[in-house]
Write a structure and sequence with these properties.
Elements lengths: L1 H12 L3 H9 L1 H10 L7 H43 L1
Helix pairs in contact: 2-4, 3-4
């Protein structure tokens, strides 16, 4: 099992910086949807299932994006954010 996870990680890290940013940004709508769906007039059981699915997707996109970006990609994003806030 560990070997399979390492192969997946290696394949994700071969993707581009831009792909990593897109995947990482995709977690935001799923986080929003996971909490907004609580306002829907549906049963508690359905809300629980929706929350698990949407929150799980958000976490999957988040960790997938971080894996694609890697340490250098995260540093690059921090530099861009720091540069824009100092302007």
């Amino acid at each position: 099992m560990k070997r399979i996870l390492l192969k997946i990680k290696e394949k994700l890290q071969r993707l581009s910086f831009r792909t990593g940013v897109i995947v990482l940004v995709m977690c935001i709508p799923f986080y929003i949807l996971s909490f907004v769906q609580m306002a829907l007039p549906i049963s508690v059981k359905a809300k629980g299932i929706l929350w698990i699915v949407l929150f799980g997707l958000a976490k999957t996109f988040q960790y997938g994006g971080i894996t694609i970006l890697g340490v250098e990609g995260i540093k690059r994003i921090k530099q861009v954010i720091k540069y824009k806030t100092n302007k």
